[in-house]
Write a sequence for this structure.
């Protein structure tokens, strides 16, 4: 007698979390009142509602006054979005994306680069985009600016969010030619020495 088929329900679709309100669109008087009554609290260069925990989506929304859909958050600003930096840096770091026309201009508060960002290098959070933890880590390694304690800590925390960690980052550095690759290699070696190569390079002592 054939076994009876068990009806299975299709897997439930996981809904994306809701986008936080755009507090940057509120009138200045309303924002001021919200802060006065404790309804709005500082979050990077913007605000978040007191009932909204700090998540990547909430942090990205806090950049909305300066970020636009034709740009993506990068470098230390993106590291802050992913929780790998205490603040988004100054100036804020953005890049053009998808060859879209950039309507923003650089100011003392924002610096806009023209990185070659593939779709897989970015993550959409509501109406805005941020570079993925892997791409953010690579951009910090290749950056032609300073590489101090904040950047080193951010790289270490970002590596924890990347499948394969430092090995994945090392493979990307070696696989793609890009300006400042020597700098990236030196920074990567200082942060995460390649133990396998070190073991191969040191000869075994004779018994």
């Amino acid at each position: 007698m054939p076994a009876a088929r068990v009806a299975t329900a299709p897997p439930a679709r996981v809904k994306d979390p809701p986008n936080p309100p755009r507090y940057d669109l509120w009138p200045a008087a309303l924002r001021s009142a919200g802060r006065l009554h404790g309804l709005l609290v500082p979050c990077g260069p913007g605000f978040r509602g007191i009932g909204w925990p700090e998540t990547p989506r909430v942090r990205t929304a806090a950049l909305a006054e300066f970020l636009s859909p034709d740009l993506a958050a990068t470098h230390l600003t993106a590291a802050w979005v992913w929780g790998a930096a205490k603040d988004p840096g100054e100036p804020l770091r953005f890049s053009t994306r998808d060859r879209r026309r950039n309507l923003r201009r650089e100011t003392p508060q924002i610096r806009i680069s023209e990185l070659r960002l593939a779709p897989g290098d970015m993550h959409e959070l509501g109406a805005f985009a941020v570079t993925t933890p892997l791409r953010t880590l690579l951009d910090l390694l290749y950056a032609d600016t300073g590489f101090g304690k904040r950047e080193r800590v951010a790289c270490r925390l970002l590596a924890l969010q990347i499948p394969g960690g430092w090995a994945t980052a090392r493979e990307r550095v070696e696989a793609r030619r890009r300006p400042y690759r020597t700098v990236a290699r030196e920074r990567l070696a200082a942060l995460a020495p390649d133990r396998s190569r070190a073991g191969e390079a040191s000869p075994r002592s004779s018994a």
